[in-house]
């Protein structure tokens, strides 16, 4: 039996799993501490606030992606691995919450996303915030993968990648909203869930492309910045092309814009098709580059 089962490897795997669960619990506590005015139990159970549930689940999805990055990164000895899981996990939780707050303020500047979710139960806002969390989780995952000579240099590289990734996410999201033929702020504020799903798909796509750009092995900062810039520009150019593709191929004979904003009841299915097109294209781009 010992030939097939390595007890040491199994015990290490158990240690990584338990460490990941502890980081998850720390992340849950950190969310509560950062949002003291939100009664989570009340929103989930008493109010049945689906907008908040979307956002909350998005946060946990991002947290799991972050934990994955801390576990699957470069492996040393078991004790060092556990130490790095906790160091990068706790720093990552702080960066995830900070990045989500910054993104909320800078991507959709005309209203308070949290207020839309809690006070208005705006499901479009809920899914956009979920996408912002997940996109930031992907950026943190990309920043965690790689080698470093010392813990300090690893943390510095991690922080710089996080800053670059969030800068790219915000700029690309602003670029996306500028070329849309309708005002996304107005549609989201008017509870247009279809528009929220569509925009969430674009944010996720940008997050996937950004993660892929910073996943490449570090050579030097010039090479890294050039790679990230090229992939970001490529992504920004391809998003409108993909929307045209979705219009012609996935929804022939109709216009996505008409289905999402120019009818009395916005077509959530059309928003989902558009979001799928963006995410699928982003995945295809990461496989191709």
UniProtKB/TrEMBL annotation:
The UniProt record lists the keyword Endoplasmic reticulum: no
Regions that span the bilayer: 13-31, 51-72, 78-103, 124-145, 151-172, 193-215, 221-246, 267-287
Location in or out of the cell: Cell membrane
Family, as annotated: Belongs to the UPF0719 family.
Name the UniProt record assigns to this protein: DUF350 domain-containing protein
Entries under InterPro entries matching the protein: DUF350 (IPR007140)
GO CC annotations, alphabetized: plasma membrane
Main location: membrane
Keyword Thylakoid: no
Mode of membrane association: Multi-pass membrane protein
Pfam families: DUF350
Keywords: Cell membrane, Membrane, Transmembrane, Transmembrane helix
């Amino acid at each position: 039996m010992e030939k097939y089962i390595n007890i040491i490897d199994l015990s290490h795997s158990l240690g990584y799993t338990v460490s990941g669960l502890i980081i998850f619990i720390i992340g849950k506590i950190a969310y509560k501490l950062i949002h003291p005015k939100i009664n989570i139990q009340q929103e989930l159970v008493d109010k049945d606030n689906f907008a908040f549930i979307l956002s909350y689940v998005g946060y946990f999805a991002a947290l799991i992606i972050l934990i994955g990055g801390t576990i699957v990164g470069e492996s040393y000895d078991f004790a060092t691995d556990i130490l790095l899981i906790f160091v990068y996990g706790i720093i990552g939780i702080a960066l995830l919450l900070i990045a989500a707050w910054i993104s909320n303020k800078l991507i959709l500047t005309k209203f308070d996303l949290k207020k839309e979710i809690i006070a208005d139960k705006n499901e479009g806002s809920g899914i956009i915030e979920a996408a912002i969390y997940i996109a930031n989780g992907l950026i943190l995952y990309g920043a965690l993968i790689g080698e470093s000579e010392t813990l300090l240099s690893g943390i510095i590289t991690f922080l710089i990648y996080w800053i670059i990734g969030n800068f790219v996410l915000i700029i690309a999201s602003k670029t996306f909203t500028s070329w849309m033929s309708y005002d996304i702020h107005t549609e989201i504020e008017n509870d247009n869930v279809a528009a929220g799903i569509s925009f969430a798909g674009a944010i996720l796509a940008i997050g996937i492309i950004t993660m892929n750009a910073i996943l490449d092995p570090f050579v030097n900062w010039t090479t890294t910045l050039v790679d990230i810039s090229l992939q970001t520009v490529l992504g920004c150019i391809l998003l409108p092309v993909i929307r045209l593709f979705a219009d012609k191929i996935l929804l022939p004979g109709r216009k996505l814009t008409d289905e999402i904003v120019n009818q009395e009841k916005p077509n959530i299915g059309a928003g989902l098709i558009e979001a799928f097109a963006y995410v699928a294209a982003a995945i295809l781009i990461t496989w191709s580059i």
